[in-house]
Amino acid sequence: MKERVYEANPDPSKPKFFITAAFPYPNSPLHLGHARTYTIADVYARYMRMKGYNVLFPMGFHYTGTPILTMAEQLKAKDPELVSLFVEVYDVPPEDIEKLGDPLALARYFHKDAKQAMIEMGYSIDWRREFTTVDEEFKKFIVWQFTKLKEKGLLTRGTHPVGWCPKHNMPVGMHDTKGDVEPEIGEFTLILFKLEDGDEIYLPAATLRPETVFGVTNIWLNPHAQYVIVEVDGRKWLVTEKAAFKLRFQRKNVRVVEKVDVSKLFGKRVVNPATNKRVPILPGTFVDPDTATGVVMSVPAHAPYDYAAVRDILSQPEMLKKYGVDPRELEPIPLIKVKGYSDVPARDVVEKFGVESQLDKEKLDEATKKLYSDEYHHGIMREDIVSLVYPDLPPEYRRYVVAPVKVWIAGKSVAEAREATAKWLEALGYADKMYEVMNRPVYCRCGTEVVVKVLEDQWFIDYGNPAWKAKAKELLSKMNIVPEELRKEFMYTIDWLHERAAARTRGLGTELPWARGWIIESLSDSTIYMIFYTVNYKIRRYGLKPEQLGIEFWDYVVLGKGNPKDIEKKYGIPRKVLEDIRSEFEYWYPLDSRHSGRDLVPNHLTFFIFNHVALLPREKWPRQIVVNGFVMLEGKKMSKSLRNIIPLRRAIRVYGPDTVRAAILASAELLQDANFTHELALSVMDRLSNIVKIVELVADKEQLEDDSSIAGRWIVSMACTRIREVTNYMEEFKYRAATITLLYEMAKDVEKYFELRGAVKGSKQLRFFVENWVKMLAPIVPHIAEELWHRLGNKTLVVTEEWPKPVQRDAVAELTVAYVDKLIEDIKEIIKVVKKKPEKVIVAVDEPTNWQLAVKAVQATLNRLSFKEFMNEVLRELSRDERRRVAPKLKKLFDYVMGLHEDLKKLITTINEFDEKQAIEQLKDYIARSIGVDKNNIIVLRASEAKGVIPSQKLASIVPLRPAIVVS
RNA sequence: GCGGGGGUGCCCGAGCCAGGUCAAAGGGGUCGGGCUUAGGACCCGAUGGCGUAGGCCUGCGUGGGUUCAAAUCCCACCCCCCGCACCA
User: Fold this and answer.
1) What residues are paired with A593 via a beta bridge?
2) What is the CATH number of domain A188-377+418-437?
3) ipTM above 0.95, yes or no
4) Is the CB of A297 under 7 A from strand B?
5) What kind of fold does domain A677-791 have according to CATH?
6) How far is the CA of A899 from the C1' of B23 (A)?
7) What sign results for the dihedral spanned by CA atoms A417, A422, A423, A429?
8) Where in chain A is the domain with CATH 3.90.740.10?
9) For residue range A864-917, what is the model confidence (pLDDT) as tens digits?
10) Distance from residue A485 (CA) to nucleotide B63 (C1'), in Å?
């Protein structure tokens, strides 16, 4: 930090690398989940720096939106639940709560806290470029963005339904409701059934299944509910009192005319606009007066509720008589064919689920769900529904009425018919719609029930624009998506995205310049803000005022459009300054890597793609997206309600930043959910302190001896092997594997080295290993790595060191150790089976002259040859005598070699000569220690020397790499 | 429903894309041993079955298939998790 190595300035001599991670929303402290994304981005930044890139990794804070508002309000009201969450879970000092009643103060508080956490974590951020989304300079940038979108015709205007609190007169989202429930808004089709007598009164039956209108036998009204006549756009509707209230939020002209005594309506008749049939109005107690209009059309063939209610009423003949209804009128009218069901599917499910009456809500809901789903997905409209449509009309007129039904509805799938029916009736003036909260009741925090309000003049970003979509797909196809599996998800999202409401009537953020009172919503003002990092510190350094940052300023800086002279004249910005700012943007952009959690794939990251292609030329399109999974705590999802969120700074206090970093990285690969546990953190701490001990052994450079033994050669070679391995992991974002190799596997290598040597001692060779180790640890655990680097006597900073390169490996040394280890394993296996304490071990190895056979076998398996092919190839080159000698061995050799590691196989192909006897002799002490047999009782013979010493059967089985072993 | 991800040994969890050191890494747990006054921490060994020679049998959701060879490739099925918006 003191060296300012993270402050990145344009440097034409170095390749640049620009990394950003999704900035945090400061309504709570940073926790382990945030830490995952930022740690991954930081490891990447540090790695790329060591690879020689000029890396820029900046950070900002996202103040835009409403949750901060709501939270501040609740704190002001001293909501005990939230206060306790802040104090006990978020570690906010109780005396600070008071001042957090102000939204901006709240944001600033957590902003400061989050920044401190990032500094403590050692994130290599260029803090000169920090900003918030309510900075005036940033708002000017967003104004430019939206002006451009509008110019390109990508903004549209229209109406939009939202959840609404009638008391607050404000839209409510999930964070504004009791229990944080998202109000789900659905659309009912209203079909207008005209009352037969009296003046033009319509009964708007609310339905989710307009295609069943052809089978209506009657209308249901709740006998216990209060109904009223309302005038809606000049027409009179009969709806419940509650519905009249709700309609006022969705329609401009709604006027209650009079209350109605519902009992007087029963038995009266209405006309079905789809069939011209007269059907009676009947009492249905199941009808919920709080849902939609409280008027329900009865389709007993396909709606379980209707079937049950009809069945109920048929059991009361006196009621039918009273209302003048012939029971035959209520017979179900089949409309839809579904396989697995009879003509009257509603009867099937009602009977199957054992429904008792229309008030048997639980069973009926289940039956309805099942039937609706089956009919929607597998149902086909019957052809004979055509005969139901206006049957009494003279044929010459009827032809015209029936045509749309014949063409668009009959014989079609339910899904198609549903849309067509609604359209048809709407065209005839007999259908309308009404929004409803589908998961109602949902309550605002104030206790008022949430209704649906239709907002006029809403601005949308038109992500449905086909040309725009095509460009977004073009970028996606060019971009590197990590992990690759997510590409499909992006593709799918790009496809289904359509108009998105881009503004809200409250919250922090930037106002739409042409629509007072509309604040650009938070997912819309955070799509191209990475551009802002490249220039904002210079805007500040040059002391430019927000009013100087007009459209032409950004046009020039971002697009290179316009003449600096004109801009100088208009805004008073010196030409040199303009050019300097422009060149900084030019240097850093395009963005090389964008990082975030996987929850942002279907929204932010896709919008990020869309907005870049809309506004920037192709050469400035972003190059890569890296996505990570969530962090769980002790196996559980972190959540406010479980109160198991660990603020990052608390974790840092307990474990230290490097442990937190390494534990998060080690616990899961990119897309998997990471599981942070106390135990894992302890284990990481233990490993780190172990590394410190090893470093101590090689800290004093002058005192180190030269270890030219196989052990020494091996540890040097392993350093190179590990460098190659870890580098590959880093390149592939396999940070879990990289961390585990660095923390666990490499420590094991060192232990193995001590075992091979038979002593815990440093050496020049071990120091070589350790130096590279510390360098590779630097991106993962920067603080400790820096300390260790100095402990090794270096005066430089390890962050500025070059990432190590794998120099030549020592194939013979690695093979020798692998070979001897396999030998030890085999001897142990034999000892185990024999169950006797061994005294003497004789090992008989193949002649070194046969080594080439092993190489050939390895090559054959690497080239995927079959055994036959391999044998033919080998035998072809040999004399008859040699063939006889060699042939029996080949199968055994081939089978053994087949199973070797790819890496070891490749190693073997580089070795021209390998003397197994020598290999064993070199590590005899090690073997003796490992199997617990005196060194002098381990005898190594070549096959030619072993005749008569070991059984002839064994002797014959010797092949290269597989010696004969006799334990006695 | 649509889209995506996934089912591995007592548990967690790698491996699968590029089939062959895979009876399957690494943890955890359990059992045995060491250390210790004891416990903890730590270290060693065992942890599918069989086996007096480095081996064999059974096994990676279920059922088929391809292959000399399948946890890995192909087909079908079953089950679990996540997203489906105007909200950060």
Assistant:
1) A19
2) 3.90.740.10
3) no
4) no
5) Isoleucyl-tRNA Synthetase; Domain 1 (1.10.730)
6) 15
7) positive
8) 188-377+418-437
9) 777 777 877 777 777 777 777 777 777 778 878 877 777 778 888 888 889 999
10) 28
